[in-house]
Amino acid sequence: GVIGALVAVLAYVATLNPEDQADRMGAIAGVAQNLRLIGALYHIKSVFDMKTTEYVPYHMTFAMTFFILQMTLYSVLSGNYYMTVGSIPGLLLCGLNLSLYVIYPPITWKVPILGTQQRAVE
């Protein structure tokens, strides 16, 4: 499982030259960090299918956007290339999530910061 994959990655990196080990681990960490976006992509697909953000928690969306924005800014200012590459896809996904609150607003509640809500069809 996961432990076996971790052992395999560490064994692979141990076979590299010491000068290349940090770069390779940084690249592997960036890829692993972006694997966490699969769940967010599933939620975005469900918003497109239902045509509403009714079931997308805005608290989490805004908190994650703020957190990933801070992480991206820190990585750029500190010159950490791998952290920047790992953060940018998450930041883009957060931007897409926020735009979905405008494109497909919730039905029964108003998005607090954006103030969007679907109008009742009469």
Automatic annotation (TrEMBL):
Keyword Ribonucleoprotein: no
Signal sequence annotation: 1-22
Keywords: Membrane, Signal, Transmembrane, Transmembrane helix
Coiled coil: none
InterPro entries in the record: SWEET_rpt (IPR004316)
GO cellular component, one term: membrane
ATP-binding keyword on record: no
Transmembrane domains' residue ranges: 56-75, 81-104
Protein name per its UniProtKB record: Sugar transporter SWEET1
